[in-house]
Amino acid sequence: MATATAILDTLRTQLDTTEYKKLHWEGSFSDYLNTVLETPGVTRTAYQRLYDMILSHGAEDVYENKDKLPRYKFFTEFATKHADGIYGLDRSLMQLVNTFKSAALGYGTERRVILLHGPVGSAKSTIARLLKRGLEEYSRTDAGMLFSFSWKTEDGTGWTKDPMHGEPLQLVPEEHRAQILTMLNDQCQKPYQYEIKIKGDLSPYSRYEYKTRLAKYDGDWLKMLANEVKVYRLVLSEKDRIGIGTFQPKDEKNQDSTELTGDINYRKIAEYGSDSDPRAFNFDGELNIANRGIVEFIEVLKLDVAFLYDLLGASQEHKIKPKKFAQTDIDEVILGHTNEPEYKRLQNNEFMEALRDRTVKIDIPYVTRLRDEVKIYEKDFNSDRVRGKHIAPHTVEVAAMWAVLTRLNPPKHASLSVLQKMKLYNGKTLPGFTEDNVIELKRDALHEGMLGISPRYIQDKISNALVAHPNEDNINPFMVMKELEDGLRNHSLIKDEDQYRHYKELLSVVREEYEDIVKNEVQRAIAADEDALIRLCGNYMDNVRAYTQREKVRNRYTGNYEEPDERLMRSVEEKIDIPEGRKDDFRREIMNYIGALAIDGKKFDYKTNERLQKALELKLFEDQKDSIKLSSLVSNVVDKATQEKIDVVKSRLIRNYGYNESSATDVLNFVASIFARGQTKK
C-alpha cells in the first residue's frame, strides 16, 4: 500500500523548478539593460504587447462574400482551449485587432477607450476575458516577458516593489534619456519592429524614493540604481492584481472614484505625518494596478459621471489623478463594453461629448451565420459534456436556426423569404442568387445582428429540455422547440405583442424546415441501397449520353437499340425541379461535368454531384416507399417483411445520421405520420 511519503517522493522526481526560476528572475539595473539589448521587446507598451500577443498565436485567411479576412487563432484555438471559443465574428475581431495595431504603432487609437458595443450575450465579455487571460499567459513566455523594479528597504533587509509596476527605464533621468535610447536602439542585437522609447514618469511613490535616495548618493544616480534598485520579472495576473484590472459598476451611492485611482492609507498618516506622503497612500485602484497591462470596464456607460471624467484623462493623456498627488502616468489598454440602450443614452447626452470623441466603438453583433451559431451551443451540449442522454440530430441546429432567424432583417427581395436569406448567409446556393446578391443583402442590413434572441436564452432552454424529461434517454428538436416557445411569454427582452407573435411565427418556420430535413433523411435512408443507386445512375447516364449525342440505347434485356427513355430521365430530373424547358441544358451540363472530370483523369461518381445525387435518391425513394409501406407504422400493425425493411432503414439512420435506437424510432414514427396525412412534398 502506497504511503504519503512514497506519493510525495514520486512527485518530487517529476519536479522541475526551471520555469519557476525564470519567472522569478531578479537582477541589477545593468542586467536589465543587457536584457533590453538582447530582447528589446521587453520595453513594449501595453498596446504593443497586446497586439503581439494576438499575432503570436497565428492567423489564417478566410473568405466571406469575396472579402479576404484574417481569422486570428487566438480567438479560435486559444479560446477553445479555455472553453471560450468565438465563432462568426471574424469581421468584428479584425476591426478590433486593427485598432490594437494602430495603437501599437502610435497612430492615435492608443489614446482612446476601446468600446465593445453590442446586444446582451454577444460575446463582449468573452472577448475581454480572453484578452486578459491571453496577456497573463503571454507574460509567462520568453516572447512576452516584461520587467519592473523594487526599492531596498531602509533597514536593508528587504525590497519594496513599485506599486504601479513601472518600466525600469523610467528610472533614467529625463536629461539622459535621449542619449541612452540612441545607444540602445543602435546596439540592440535583434531586429525590433518598434523603436525603444521611454514613456511617462515614475509613480509618486517611486518618485519619492528616487529623490530621497539620490540625495543619499549626492546625485550619482548610476550608483544609486546599482545599490538601491532591483529589477525583477513581472508576471501579469488578474488574481494577484498585477497588470490586469477589472472594474464593475455598483450602486451610485456606494461608488467612489478612489476605486480607480487609489486612496489614502489613514493608518500610515500618523507614521509619516502627512496625507500627501506617497508612502501613506495605497496605489491600488484599478487604473493603478492595471498599469503595463489592460483594464476592463464592465458595462462602462453605467458608470457614474465622476468615473467617466477619470477615463478622459486616462485615455487621452495616459494620466490619472490620485487624491493629493499630481497627475500620474499610466500605460494600459482601456477596454469597455456596453449594450445598445446604454450607448444610445451616451449619444443623447450632450455632456458626454468629450467621452464620445475619445471612444473607438467596435460593434460585436449576434452571429448571423447558422453554422457558427451551432458551434456556440455544441461547446456545452455534446456527448462529452452531456452524459446519460443522447442528443438527437438537429436538436441544437433547430434552436440555432430560430435564434439566427430572430436576428435577421426581412429581405427586401419579394421572392426571398427570411429562411432563404439565412441559408444564403450560411453559404448555400439558391437559384437566381449569386454571391453579389448576398453582399447586397448584407449592405441593406448594416445593423443586422444587433437585435434578436440571445444565445443565453437558447442555452437555458436546451438545459431545461435536458432535465425536463428524466425518463427519456434522448432529447429531440421538438422538446427544445417546446421549451423555446413556452419561455417566450416570460422573456424579459420581448417588448410587445407584435414581437412575441413574430418570434412565434419564426418557430413555425423552423418546425416546417425541420420536417423537410427529417423527411429528406428518412428518404435517403430508404434509398440508401448503394447497388440500386449505382444501377439507377448507370441507366440514367446511358440514356442522357445517348440523348445528347442523338444516339440510341441498347436494351440490356432484348439487345435491341431503342430511343432514349424520356420517361426515366424526366422522372429523375423532376425530383430536383428541372423544368421541361431546361432539361436539355441540365443534361448537357451533366455530360460536360463528366468530360471535365475525364480531362483531369478523374472517374465520375454520382456522389460528386450534389444535385444529381439528390435526384437519384428521391427517385429511388419513390420507387421503394410503397414496398416498405412506411405509413403503416402509425397503425401499429406491421407485417414481418415490412418490419425487417423498417429495421434496415432504422439501422441506416443510426449508422449514417447519428440517431440512437429511440430517437430513430421517434423520427420514423414522425415521418410516417406525415405520409399518413398525405403531406409528402415532391
Nutshell version of this structure?
Helices cover 50% and strands 10% of the residues.
Counting H and I runs of at least 4 residues, what is the number of helices? 29
Distance between the first and last residues' Cα:
71 Å
* Order of strands across the main sheet: 8-11-14-4-15
Mean pLDDT across residues: 88
The geometry reads as elongated
| Helix content class | 40-55%
Largest sheet: 5 strands, parallel
What multimeric state do the chains show?
single chain
Number-wise, the strands total 19
Low-confidence stretches: none
Strand content: 5-15%
Radius of gyration from CA coordinates: 34 Å
The computed structural class is: alpha/beta
How do the strands and helices of this protein lay out in sequence?
Layout: H1 4-13, H2 18-23, E1 26-27, H3 29-38, H4 46-56, E2 59-64, E3 67-72, H5 77-81, H6 90-104, E4 113-117, H7 124-138, E5 146-152, E6 159-161, H8 174-187, H9 204-216, H10 221-228, E7 229-234, E8 244-247, H11 258-261, E9 263-264, H12 266-272, E10 281-282, H13 286-289, E11 294-297, H14 305-316, E12 319-320, E13 328-329, E14 333-338, H15 340-348, H16 353-357, E15 359-363, H17 370-378, E16 390-391, H18 395-407, H19 418-425, H20 435-443, H21 455-468, E17 474-475, H22 477-488, H23 497-526, H24 530-548, E18 553-554, E19 561-562, H25 566-573, H26 583-599, H27 610-628, H28 640-657, H29 661-676
Parallel strand pairs: 4-14, 4-15, 8-11, 11-14, 16-17
Antiparallel strand pairs: 1-7, 2-3, 5-6, 5-7, 9-10, 12-13, 18-19
Helix pairs in contact: 4-6, 4-7, 17-18, 18-22, 18-23, 21-22, 22-23, 23-27, 23-28, 24-26, 28-29
